[in-house]
Amino acid sequence: MSIEVNSVGKRFGTFVALDDVSLTVADGRLTALLGPSGGGKSTLLRIIGGLEQPDTGTVRINGTDATRIPPQRRNVGFVFQHYAAFKHLSVYRNVAFGLEIRKRPKAEIRERVHELLALVHLEQFADRLPEQLSGGQRQRMALARALAVEPSVLLLDEPFGALDAQVRKELRDWLRRLHDEVHVTTIFVTHDQEEALEVADELVVINHGRIEQVGSPAEVYDKPANDFVMSFLGPVTHLAGRLVRPHDLEIFTAETPEAVPAAVASLQRIGFEVRVTLDAGAEQPWAQLTRGQSEALGLATGDRVWIRAPR
């Protein structure tokens, strides 16, 4: 199902949450709303889902004006950061809940729930209570519950925000594979740049209630529309008065055309990466090297070097 947001505005008192926002999400895409806290991404998600009403503008889902349609009639599935599980119900009953209130036949419910539990790798935990699951397992249960009613649109608001880094990594890999299997149009909110770059087909960068840029992860990272997008999406440093990616800086041990003289202020080893902080007079840029690059240059604190940004 495609989603069209047209000239949507939303205020909370004097605070402008969304300012004339327009966006089209193509059918079957996995789109990330990415931006800093308070930028408007969750408000936009909630308006698409019907949990908030816009002050101005419209929302169309699959060509139908859904702006004033209540959430329960939009055929939208929700997954939030905190799982909102029914603590007294088993995993099976949590996933079955939406089907039961729609009074689907018991045989259909049983088949659908078992299918979904297998899809999210929780079939062996069907009889457990949510408190007996890990955080990652509870979030997979929440996704199965959202998918049970076969939504046309799946909306996820910081779905992995409450989990530790390793579990987040595992779940975003799993979410990408799951989406490739079910192909439901999906929008998820995140402030984690790596998560967005790794999972999404399309990024929508939002700041101060406005969309700064829309594009594929590669387009937005390699060709940022402005300094905000570049600064927000990946590391940056300053050289010769402009923003550059630290991994794009070249370091030379001999004078080189178009390179700026500098001194090595410090070297910091972080796993496979070596961060080189440089003193270039008015600027203190830093470069991101592999261990092999650093060893090949033979860098040491105090060395005189020349640094060059990409042309």
Automatic annotation (TrEMBL):
Its EC number is 7.6.2.9. Residues 3-233 form the ABC transporter domain. Keywords: ATP-binding, Cell membrane, Membrane, Nucleotide-binding, Sulfate transport, Translocase, Transport. SUPFAM superfamilies: MOP-like (SSF50331), P-loop containing nucleoside triphosphate hydrolases (SSF52540). It is an enzyme of class 7 (translocase). Pfam families: ABC_tran (PF00005), TOBE_3 (PF12857). GO terms for cellular component: ATP-binding cassette (ABC) transporter complex. The keyword Translocase applies. The keyword Nuclease does not apply. One of its GO terms (molecular function) is ABC-type sulfate transporter activity. This is ABC-type quaternary amine transporter. It comes from Pseudofrankia inefficax (strain DSM 45817 / CECT 9037 / DDB 130130 / EuI1c).
